[in-house]
Amino acid sequence: MKGLMAIGNLCFLRIVPHNKFSSLSKFNDIDNRTYLRNTHEKFIYKKESGVNIGELLEKVRTSGDNALTESESKQLLKEYGVPVISETVAFSEDEAVEAAQKTGFPVVLKGLGATLLHKTERGLVHLNLADTEAVKNAAFLIAQEAGDELEGLLVQPQIQGKREFVAGLFRDEQFGPMIMFGTGGVFTEALSDVTFRVAPLKETDAAEMFDEIRAKSLLGEFRGEKAANRDELIKTLMGLSRIGMEIPEISEIDINPLVITSAGDVVAVDALVVPGKKQAEGKHRPPVAPTAIRALFYPKSIAFIGASGAIGKWGHMLVVNTISGGYKGEIYLVNPKGGTIADRHVYKSVTEIPGNVDLGVVTIPAKMVLDLIPQFKEKSIKNMLLITSGFGETGKEGKALEKKLFMEARKAGIVILGPNTMGICNPHRDFFCIGTSVNPMAGSTAIVSQSGNLGVQLLAFAEEQAIGIRGFCGSGNEAMITVEDFIDGLEIDSLTKIIVLYIESVKDGRRFFEGARKTGKKKPIVLLKGGQSGAGNRAASSHTGALSSDSRVFDAICKQAGIVKVERSMELLDLAAAFSSLPLPKGNRIAIVTLGGGWGVITADMCSREGLDVPDLPDDILERMDKILPPYWSRSNPADIVGESDNTIPLALMEEFLKWDGCDAVINLGILGMKIFTKHLFESVRQADPSYSDEFLNDGAKFIDSLEKEYIVRVAHMMMPETDTGKYSTRSYKVLETGDYVAESGLTQPLIGSGKLADLLKANKMDVHNLVR
């Protein structure tokens, strides 16, 4: 008896099984609908007017199945441009044999059923079946193992290809549909060689994923097999991306293996589609306008609610740090006890303050903060910096209090930064309302940190290293203003050139991604993520889901958005300093200047690992460098200056590299630090050789120190833009007959060989170059 199973506009043949497949007898009563066989008597799908995805998924939900069958999964994928294997569905041993004969041996036989998820592990996949007896035996074993879960048999040609990959889709709670690609086969999870992107993908996103896996070389020509068809791979990932955006009812898709044939064709050999409940739209906080955030950093008057005269208390530290930092606006202190603090009158309530207040800084206990909202509203205070802790970070009750405060403040038109924050600063207005006495110089690096303590320590480092700060904010619990708001605001802030973020979580993942991707095209975003080590794998039905840890997802988000993610806190400002002083290279070609060969070799290795090219030097560059360096130099890139201690030599080499069209950036190694070694040398001489006077040794130490300082100045000068064009370019150094190199830009004194100290050294029969070598 024959019948037809219809799902929406998708039709395929069902056949009543032989006794061995008695579990399929539920299809005996299927109504009579037209069915199709092709001229070769193979079962085929009929697409009458497109696959009705909604009805297909509804069928799965109502039947209690937790996944589409492999055959149904592939039909869905085929609709979205994924190249799937041609196959036949059979419902008896004889049907399987017939299909195998028409397919041509060798074949693959698989068990088919909506609940048969990991078929290989259960012995439900039989490969390289060479004859009818092998097919019959495999069919028997599959039926025996699958039991009532078996709905049919899938007959496929045996694909010849040594290379197996995996592609998939899953839904992240924060960021939505994510696409995965990586090394596939039975060792997918063990190798864990995968990469991710958030949907919707661009074709460039898909192409980048291929180059990020460790096994990327397998996509090229391999052991006599042709390179993978990248267009088909891109179509596969783009198809998954479209499904992720268009069919929210699908929670996971796994294509494993995605085989590359010997001819380079891409074929989805196995596939799993897992439906799930459509994700509810997240209830995200409404955005805070950039103008409202800016107002927090430019207050003309401040009220400190909870001001204290006790040193070490927040109500005292914030007041004295703000005053000592040079803040020029009006300051009002509020404490119910009244009196004076820091020789200033203390008001007993907010409403007693006579003048206007732009910003209220609150340090009173959490349970009392809600009572301030009506007072702020009466006084027309629109901004609150809420330092106080004891809200959402403390548990259920604290979260409820924070939520209520947020709702009441929004109704009153009050913007809250915090709670649980270390404060804010704006060096451009001498405004330092933070819990630590640090006053970094004004600059272009904006810092937003969800850890206030870490943030102010970064400020202290910036102050020590003379890194200019645009502004700092400890965002705290982000009850109202979130990191997403700051990213949007800093995008349009003309004084911000670099954005530094420390975050532990995001409130609106999709908005974070889209805002960072938009802003990152204009300004570098450097980010450190805390709380990564506790991320575990999701409980998932597919390889894709099992491999999608929170840290991997966030890494992919950063890469796709153009965020520079670092792993150590000190790298945040190191990179900020680099971005603020150097232009982005136009390409990946690197020249290396090194005082010692070993450092050059290590650096070249690091460049290779990071995808940077260290090109060979052309003849014209070699010829010019031969005039600068001794005949035994390396004559290669890295350029080893073989311990030459004349600081003009590396400067001249860098100039040659910067003028070279075959180079995009120069790495300078091992030149600084000379004073450390000479300091120890001079001390040894002082103790062992009395013929050298203290005056000479002290002057020598000062001289070496001045050499390094002048060297730094000249290197920094190379990085400065030309005043007339605003572009970064090299400064022309001339090679003089004496071997001294003099800058045309005004730094006219040779580094070595002139001046009183040089005469003193020569008088003591000491060679200048040997001194610093």
Strand order of the largest sheet: 16-17-15-14-18-19-20
User: What is the share of helical residues?
Assistant: 25-40%
Q: Which structural class fits the helix and strand makeup? A: alpha/beta
Subunit organisation of the chains: single chain
Which stretches of 5+ consecutive residues score pLDDT under 50? 1-50, 534-546, 722-773
- Overall body shape: flat
Strand content: 15-25%
Number of strands: 32
Major sheet characteristics: 7 strands, mixed
Span of the ends, CA to CA: 95 Å
Evaluate the radius of gyration: 35 Å
* Whole-number mean pLDDT: 82
Number of distinct helices: 25
Structural description of this entry:
This protein has 773 residues and is of the alpha/beta class. Helices cover 35% and strands 20% of the residues. The chain contains 25 helices and 32 strands. The strands form 7 sheets. A 7-stranded mixed beta sheet has the order 16-17-15-14-18-19-20, sandwiched between helices. Helix 13 (452-464) packs across helix 18 and helix 14 packs parallel to helix 15 (509-520). It is flat, with a radius of gyration of 35 Å. Mean pLDDT is 82; it is low at 1-50, 534-546 and 722-773.
